[in-house]
Amino acid sequence: MNLIAKATIQIQKPIEEVFEGIVNPEKMTNYFISESSGRMETGKDLIWKFPEFPVEVPVKDIQIEMNSSISYVWDPETVVKIILEEQPDKSTVIKVTEDGKVYNEKNLNWAIGNTEGWANFLACMKAYLEYG
User: Fold this and answer.
1) Sequence-distant contacts of 32-39: CB under 8 A, at least 24 apart
2) Does the model's pTM come out above 0.85?
3) Would you say residue 53 has pLDDT above 90?
């Protein structure tokens, strides 16, 4: 059995704006990362830097479906998947999952921490996209 970290939120913006808010480093640096080596694109590898951690994080195996989904690997044991769903009112529901870790005590703590982390990512993205 694998552990999965997941979080979901609804953002009152069109799917194109939400998608761009994730793949465009000029937007993502306003709420998540401090620096990226480029735009998220299928097949591209990136390096992300974070304001709160003094590390460079490789982002690999990026797969993009325009205005629909984004997936990548930044932990060799897991895959991050971000699914965007347009709603009838033109808002967007975003679902993030990060899975692949085997069930054990250490990874249970990982799942709890990363679930909190993804909820924070989504809350920060919502605040940025809806309110600047």
Assistant:
1) 32/121, 32/124, 32/125
2) yes
3) no
